[in-house]
Structure formats: structure tokens, C-alpha cells
């Protein structure tokens, strides 16, 4: 081996299409068919070609709606938690991945429908040059991070993958800023792209947080995941097409890639990841296609049949408990049946009354009367503080009643209204321990945004000692209590998904505050 060459592992050429995908429009033929030429195709209202469609057609598409991709010669579609959903042959995908077959009908947000056409495609001609490796060089040598040499794609950035999980013992908070599916680096027409996967703390190129779009990477880009700790300089190594089939020798000049020269401090990633893993959703696992639902094989019964069946079972059980189950005297049996029937009615009424407040509250929530539901829940919890169902319903009602307007006021800088809303939320959560934790998180996010606005922006220079002290305290609280912030954020976003954007803005501002002088920037 030449002294200026480093063996970086088996290199696979950019995946060649083994299946051609065409989406033929069913309800808007004027839009024309979509021919998918890349291994990964983005569906969203701001993605091409959808961004060029009439607004009334794509208004119900989410910005990150779905992805169509090729894996192992098969075509798949993955819904990315879109607001209005994705369907295959009328069945909702629901945060999952579905294999596409020729003739399938794909529905997007109930406004666009396509017929899937799959056909074998001719492999693309090999390019004159191809990417041999993508190296992520740590920007700060003092943090002890290893360089990452990627030779096969896609590559998933994940806090549970050993590439980053190895730092968990030494820097648990920093690893905590990464998501399980934080971002991925993939090839599109032979060019490397990075796409954030909806991570909590974001992916950055330079100081710009990535939006829903994938972005092409260039040599020298500074790429950051989740904060100011996992920050890397991108180095691209290109080679002529047609190298040895099993090994690639890449020239790595020390000036261009010094970290890669030290194999003891470099992580080599030579095995391609899988889009199936990248777009899989743990929190809402779909049933297997071949799974049998035992209940589906049973005869269907009406609700009245079910109620009569339960009453008969209870009556039989009571007769047995009273020793009358084997009595054959008709007169005595009628008396026993009358007594058992009265007890059954009493028990049914008791059970119904016991659950009445929860049912009434659920009815208010279902009807959208969140404010009334929140007040009634707090009143009930004052007398029954350990009622878990009531706490859950009260928390949902409180957040849905107050949080949307609070977020609108915060975005419009109507800070007096946000403070008033936070006070109302505290009152509505007086007897709800679960809600109080979430209200405290909302108020803290409000404090961050009010502070940033008052000082003229997150990147504004420190004005005086008091400004610097508060800035440092705020960043330190974010760093030290990050797991608690993450838990509260996840719970709030489950009830009000739009809170994700508000939280992301606060996280971005905290990162800028840290860079300004409040800490090391690790949010």
C-alpha cells in the first residue's frame, strides 16, 4: 500500500435502480405522471414537483408527508406522521412502511390519488466519478470525538447506534440531545445529502437549522447534530469509476483529513444502513401483514346481545354464590332469580355511576369543549387526587384549551397574553400533579422566548453582568435538566403536535445563547 493511502473498507457504488416507479394520477390527470428516478423520493407540499402544483391541491399535504424508496429491489412508501394521512388501497399507512405492488392505489391527504406502476428498469450508466467516502471530522479535538468515515449509504445518525452511543457513559447529556432517528446521510444521483428526520434538537449546516428538505453536502460544510457537541467538518473523497470490486484505496492527504490517518481514533462505517430502519416508527408499530386477528373469526354480536350475555353470566354467578344454582323447585328458583336479578341491576347501576364523571368528561373532550372539561377535571381531582383517568383527561383538556392560543401569542410577541395564559393553566392544574409539570415546561419555554426578545435576539452580545448571569443560568438549566425537558416535551406534543415547532424555536435560541456566552452550546 502506498504511504499516502488508507484502506477504508469495501465501497459500494451508489445503488442502481432495479425497479422503475411511476405514479399515474387518478384524480388530477392534468398534473401528469410522476416518474421516480432516485432511490429516495420526498413527498410534501414544499417538495418538487408538489410545490409547483396549485395551492388548493396541495394545501392538505404535510411538509414532511411521506417518502417512497427502493430497498433490495422492492419499492416501499413510508408515512412520516402526516396530519391528513397516506393510504394504500384505501387502508391508512399510519406511521408505518408498506411495500408497493404494481396496480396499488396511493392516496395522499385525501386530495391526491395515484396508481402505482412498477417495471424493471435499465441500470443507470456508471458516472465518471463517484463518492468513495464521506468523512465527518470533529470540529473540536478537546471533546474526544472520533472521526467517522462513511463508505456505504444510507447512514443513520442515532443515539442508540454505537457510533454515538459509545459516548453515553462519558457524556450522557450530549448523547441525550440526539434522537433515535435523528438524521440520515444518503446518496441522490451519486451526491451526498443530509436530511433531518424530525429530531427534537435539530440538525444544522453551519448556523442554519435544516427544515423538512434534504440538503446536498459539500466538502468543507460544518454539520452539527443536536447542539454544539457533535459538530463535524464534512470531507468528501471522490474516485474514478470502476475500481477494484472488493476494496477501495482512497488517497487521504494529511492536510485534508488528518483524523482519518489515525485508525485508533476513527470509526469506519462500511456497511450500508437500511431505509426500512430509518423510516420505521417504534412508537406506533404496525401489525404484521400475515397476523390473524382472533376476534375477526368470531361471530359478530350486537351491543344489546353483549349486554344480555354479561347480565346472564352475572346472574348465574350470583345464583352459584347463593347456593341456588342446583335448586330444582320452580317457586324457590323464581324467588332466587328475582333476588339475583335485583342484585345484578344494582351492581350495574353502581358500576355505571362509578364511571359517570369520567364518561361525562370524555364527552366534553370529544365535543371540543376543552375549557369546561379542564375546570370540571380540576374540581373533581380536588376530591379524588389519585384518579389517574381524571388526571389524564384533565391534562388533555387543559392543554387543548389553552396551548394553541398561547403558541400564537408567543409567536406574535404578545407576551402579556402568554403570561396570563400561563397563570390560567396553573389554576386549571391546581389539583393535577401531571398537568403542573407540563405547565411548568410551557412557562419555561415562554421565559426563554421573552428573555431572548428583551435582549434583542439570542445572538445579541452580552449587555452587562446581570444579562450574562441570567443567560448562563438559563443555558445551564437547559443542559442540567435536559431529560426532564425531553419528557415534558414529548408528553405535550402528544396532545398538541404543533408544540413541536415552538419547542424547536426555543431550542434553537438556547443554542445561540450558549454560543453567545452562556455555556458550551450543548442543548
Describe the structure.
The protein has 14 helices and 23 strands. By secondary structure, it is an alpha+beta fold. It has four domains: 20-119, Tumour Suppressor Smad4 (Sandwich); 129-278, Tumour Suppressor Smad4, CATH 2.60.200.20; 302-354, no CATH class; 358-518, no CATH class. β7 and β8 form a beta hairpin. α10 (415-428) runs antiparallel to α11 (433-454). The radius of gyration is 29 Å and the shape is globular. The strands form five sheets. It has a seven-stranded mixed β-sheet, with no helix packed on it. Strands 3-2-11-10-7-8 form a six-stranded antiparallel β-sheet, with no helix packed on it. Strands 4-5-6-9 form a four-stranded antiparallel β-sheet, with no helix packed on it. It starts with a strand and ends in a 5-residue tail after the last helix. Residues 1-17, 243-261, 283-310, 350-354 and 518-523 have low confidence and may be disordered. It is 38% helix and 20% strand. 33% of the residues are buried.
Task: Please tag this protein with its features.
523 residues, disordered N terminus, globular, single chain, Tumour Suppressor Smad4, alpha+beta, 4 domains, 14 helices
Strand content: 15-25%
What global shape is seen? globular
Q: Helicity, in percent?
A: 25-40%
- Could you tell me the number of beta strands? 23
Largest sheet descriptor: 7 strands, mixed
Strand order in the largest sheet: 18-17-20-21-12-13-23
Average of the residue pLDDT scores: 79
Low-confidence stretches: 1-17, 243-261, 283-310, 350-354, 518-523
Could you say how many structural domains there are in total? 4
- Our Rg estimate from Cα atoms comes to 29 Å
Structural class: alpha+beta
Our measurement of the CA-to-CA distance between the termini, rounded to an integer number of angstroms, reads 43 Å
Helix tally?
A: 14
Protein name: FHA domain-containing protein
Amino acid at each position: 500500500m502506498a504511504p499516502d493511502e488508507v484502506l477504508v473498507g469495501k465501497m459500494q457504488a451508489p445503488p442502481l435502480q432495479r425497479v422503475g416507479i411511476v405514479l399515474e394520477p387518478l384524480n388530477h390527470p392534468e398534473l401528469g405522471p410522476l416518474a421516480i428516478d432516485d432511490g429516495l423520493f420526498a413527498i410534501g407540499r414544499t417538495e418538487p414537483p408538489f410545490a409547483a402544483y396549485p395551492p388548493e391541491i396541495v394545501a392538505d399535504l404535510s411538509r414532511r408527508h411521506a417518502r417512497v424508496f427502493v430497498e433490495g429491489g422492492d419499492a416501499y412508501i413510508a408515512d412520516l406522521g402526516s396530519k391528513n394521512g397516506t393510504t394504500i388501497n384505501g387502508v391508512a399507512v399510519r406511521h408505518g412502511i408498506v411495500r408497493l405492488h404494481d396496480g396499488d392505489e396511493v392516496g395522499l391527504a385525501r386530495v391526491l390519488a395515484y396508481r402505482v406502476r412498477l417495471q424493471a428498469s435499465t441500470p443507470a450508466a456508471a458516472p465518471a466519478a463517484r463518492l468513495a467516502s464521506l468523512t465527518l471530522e470533529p470540529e473540536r479535538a478537546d471533546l474526544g470525538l472520533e472521526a467517522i468515515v462513511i463508505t456505504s449509504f444510507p447512514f443513520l445518525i442515532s443515539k442508540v447506534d454505537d457510533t454515538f452511543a459509545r459516548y453515553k457513559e462519558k457524556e450522557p447529556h450530549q448523547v441525550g440531545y440526539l434522537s433515535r432517528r435523528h438524521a440520515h446521510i444518503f446518496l441522490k444521483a451519486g451526491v451526498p445529502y443530509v436530511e433531518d428526520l424530525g429530531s427534537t434538537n435539530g440538525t444544522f449546516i453551519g448556523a442554519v437549522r435544516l427544515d423538512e428538505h434534504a440538503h446536498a453536502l459539500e466538502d468543507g460544510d460544518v454539520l452539527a447534530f443536536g447542539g454544539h457537541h457533535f459538530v463535524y467538518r464534512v470531507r468528501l473523497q471522490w474516485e474514478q469509476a470502476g475500481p477494484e470490486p472488493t476494496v477501495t484505496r482512497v488517497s487521504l492527504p494529511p492536510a485534508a483529513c488528518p483524523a482519518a490517518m489515525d485508525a485508533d481514533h476513527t470509526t469506519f462505517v462500511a456497511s450500508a444502513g437500511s431505509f426500512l430502519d430509518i423510516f420505521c416508527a417504534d412508537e406506533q408499530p404496525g401489525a404484521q401483514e400475515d397476523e390473524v386477528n382472533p376476534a375477526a373469526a368470531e361471530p359478530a354480536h350486537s351491543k344489546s346481545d353483549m349486554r344480555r350475555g354479561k347480565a346472564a353470566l352475572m346472574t348465574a354467578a350470583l345464583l352459584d354464590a347463593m347456593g341456588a344454582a342446583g335448586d330444582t323447585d320452580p317457586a324457590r328458583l323464581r324467588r332466587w332469580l328475582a333476588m339475583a336479578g335485583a342484585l345484578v341491576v344494582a351492581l350495574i347501576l353502581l358500576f355505571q355511576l362509578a364511571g359517570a364523571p369520567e364518561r361525562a368528561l370524555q364527552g366534553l373532550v370529544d365535543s371540543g369543549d376543552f375549557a369546561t372539561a379542564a375546570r370540571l377535571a380540576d374540581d373533581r381531582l380536588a376530591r379524588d387526587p389519585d384518579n389517574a383517568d381524571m388526571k389524564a383527561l384533565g391534562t388533555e383538556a387543559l392543554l387543548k384549551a389553552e396551548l394553541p392560543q398561547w403558541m400564537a401569542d408567543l409567536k406574535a410577541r404578545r407576551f402579556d397574553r402568554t403570561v396570563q395564559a400561563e397563570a390560567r393553566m396553573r389554576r386549571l392544574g391546581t389539583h393535577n400533579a401531571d398537568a403542573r409539570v407540563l405547565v411548568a415546561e410551557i412557562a419555561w419555554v415562554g421565559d426563554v422566548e421573552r428573555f431572548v426578545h428583551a435582549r434583542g435576539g439570542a445572538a445579541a452580545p452580552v449587555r452587562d453582568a446581570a444579562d450574562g448571569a441570567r443567560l448562563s443560568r438559563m443555558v445551564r438549566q437547559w443542559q442540567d435538566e435536559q431529560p426532564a425537558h425531553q419528557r415534558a416535551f414529548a408528553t405535550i406534543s402528544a396532545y398538541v403536535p404543533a408544540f413541536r415547532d415552538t419547542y424547536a424555536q426555543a431550542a434553537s435560541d438556547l443554542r445561540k445563547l450558549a454560543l453567545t456566552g452562556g455555556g458550551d452550546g450543548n442543548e
